[in-house]
From TrEMBL, chain A:
Keyword Glycosyltransferase: no
UniProt GO BP: bacteriocin transport; cell division; protein import
Alphabetic keyword roster: Cell cycle, Cell division, Cell inner membrane, Cell membrane, Membrane, Protein transport, Transmembrane, Transmembrane helix, Transport
UniProt-listed NCBIfam families: exbB, tolQ
GO (cellular component) term, any one: plasma membrane
Segments passing through the bilayer: 22-44, 133-154, 174-196
InterPro entries per the UniProt record, alphabetical: ExbB/TolQ_transport, MotA_ExbB_proton_chnl, Tol-Pal_TolQ, TonB_ExbB_1
Sample GO molecular function, one term: transmembrane transporter activity
Organism the protein comes from: Sphingomonas edaphi
Family: Belongs to the exbB/tolQ family.
Subcellular location, record wording: Cell membrane; Membrane
Annotated membrane topology: Multi-pass membrane protein
Protein name as it appears in the record: Protein TolQ
MotA/TolQ/ExbB proton channel domain boundaries: 86-209
Automatic annotation (TrEMBL), chain B:
Bias kind Pro residues: ranges: 76-122
Span list, region Disordered: 53-155
Record field: compositional bias (Basic and acidic residues): 128-138
Record-given protein name: Cell envelope biogenesis protein TolA
């Protein structure tokens, strides 16, 4: 009677992958790709958010400490920071509105506010790009993995019927391979969900920061508007 | 694609490759559970064609047979016998004394004797089981059943060989425990050991190793060391106490005993 020696690397992911059915293989490959993509997005956004937060803080500090806003704008507007974009939008609107002979104060205020709000929204949108992928992977990957598992287990049971043998040795490898699909699905989904929540929270905080900046800047510009009208500039 | 994206994608790829590599190499190895304590099962080719169990019943027990009950006796009541006509007393009054013979008898005899059983009642069935139906049981042909069975001579059969082998291994275990553990896999090699024993249980000759079985690598690695160990084990524990009556029987005995051994 041949003795079946369990190979030592039965749990090796490569083995599990190679022994699996073609459908399960496709599921595994898809989930692996999803996992790589998820982590790429996580790393990218984490790095970017951290850098932007840090630079925004220093930019804001410099901005409020600057004596001449126009000179500061000329110096720092090249930066790709969201806060710089908001500032540029506001100053651009300010110049256009105050360049005319008759300055409509209320209209200028309104236009400034809407321009800055639009700039903030656009920047947050740009930063939040692809976060929806994390949400999708987080919610769908377990189901895809489950699909692979169900498929693999169905195949294992068919193998039982074919072999006329119900011993565990017939079913166990197939079930192990099939369960590996669910494992990959969870492996992709769990970090995706955690990262989605964390990155969304970070983005919300950045948005709030930009909103506070734009409100404050709007107030400053509005005050400036009154001064300029009063002095008849 | 800016710098952060490049870094992020690269890091993700590197992370996955490292993870799969680590899992493939060693992290997820399933250590096969150690072999459970061995239970030696020997496949015995020679099987006695005749049972060696002592035969205690020489003759088959007599067949228990109930006596056949025959058909019931015909329910015919015999007709009451017709009263016998009384002998007429001799009336010849020959002598002087006629009376004593005649006077008391005649009236009694007019009553018919069989008239006593009621004619309507059926006659009792008469079983054919006689009073003597137990008579045959004590007869001579059943005596072996109750007589003491002759104890059979111990037979040197497969069971006896197995138990002698177990006994030797058990007695040698003390010495086997003293041997150093050679390494993983050494306890999976089985050695065929031959012992020549005196009647006292001592080794008549150093133990002989007839062969080794097991994984080829293990045999190559530990074969010689194991043979030495086995020789030492059986030499050290040498006087084996074994059933004396099986030392030498017509079918063989433990004077020349071969068995499979595994250093545990």
């Amino acid at each position: 009677m041949p003795i079946v020696e369990p190979s030592a690397d039965l749990m090796s992911p490569l083995n599990l992958f190679l022994q699996a059915d073609i459908v399960v293989k496709l599921v595994m490959l898809g989930l692996l790709a999803a996992s790589v993509w998820t982590w790429a997005i996580i790393f990218t956004h984490a790095i970017r958010l951290k850098r932007i937060n840090r630079q925004t803080d220093s930019f804001e500090k410099d901005f409020w400490a600057a004596k001449d806003i126009d000179a500061f704008h000329a110096r720092r507007s090249e930066e790709k920071l969201p806060i710089a974009v908001v500032m540029s939008a506001a100053l651009d609107e300010w110049r256009r509105s105050t360049n005319t002979a008759i300055v409509d104060r209320a209209g200028t205020r309104e236009r400034l506010a809407s321009r800055m709000n639009a700039a903030v929204a656009a920047e947050v949108d740009r930063l939040g790009d692809r976060l929806n992928i994390l949400a999708t992977v987080g919610s769908v990957a377990p189901f895809v993995g489950l699909f692979g598992t169900v498929w693999g287990i169905m195949r294992s049971f068919t193998a039982i019927a074919g072999a006329n043998n119900t011993s565990l040795a017939v079913v166990a490898p197939g079930i192990a391979e099939a369960l590996f699909a669910t494992a990959i699905g969870l492996f992709a989904a769990i970090p995706a969900v955690i990262a989605y929540n964390r990155l969304t929270h970070g983005l919300d905080r950045l948005e709030a920061k930009l909103g506070r900046f734009s409100d404050r800047f709007h107030a400053t510009l509005s005050r400036e508007l009154e001064v300029e009208i009063a002095t008849g500039h | 694609m800016d710098r952060a994206e490049l870094i992020g994608t690269g890091a993700a790829l590197a992370f996955h490759v490292a993870l799969i590599g680590a899992l493939t190499l060693s992290l997820a190895q399933v250590h096969s559970t150690p072999e459970p304590p061995s239970m030696e099962v020997e496949f015995v080719d020679e099987v006695g064609l005749e049972s060696t169990a002592p035969t205690s019943i020489a003759t088959p027990p007599p067949v228990a047979q109930a006596p056949e009950t025959g058909p019931a006796e015909p329910n015919v009541v015999p007709p009451p016998p017709t009263p016998v006509p009384l002998p007429q007393p001799r009336i010849t009054p020959a002598p002087q004394r006629p009376a004593p013979a005649v006077r008391p008898a005649p009236p009694r005899q007019t009553k018919p004797a069989p008239a006593k059983p009621a004619p309507s009642r059926p006659a009792p069935r008469v079983s054919r089981i006689g009073d003597d139906f137990l008579k045959g049981i004590e007869s001579d042909d059943l005596s072996p059943r109750s007589g003491p069975a002759k104890p059979a001579a111990p037979a040197y059969n497969a069971t006896a060989r197995a138990s002698i082998g177990q006994s030797i291994i058990r007695q040698a275990q003390r010495c086997a425990n003293r041997q150093p553990f050679l390494g993983e896999g050494a306890n999976k090699v089985r050695l065929t050991v031959n012992l020549k024993l005196n009647r006292s249980g001592r080794l008549a000759r150093p133990p002989a190793i007839l062969g080794t079985r097991g994984d080829a690598d293990d045999v190559a690695k530990y074969g010689d060391l194991l043979e030495d160990q086995v020789r030492r084990i059986f030499a050290e524990c040498s006087p084996f106490r074994l059933p004396a009556d099986l030392y030498d029987t017509p079918n063989g005995g433990w004077n020349d005993f071969t068995f499979t051994y595994r250093v545990d």
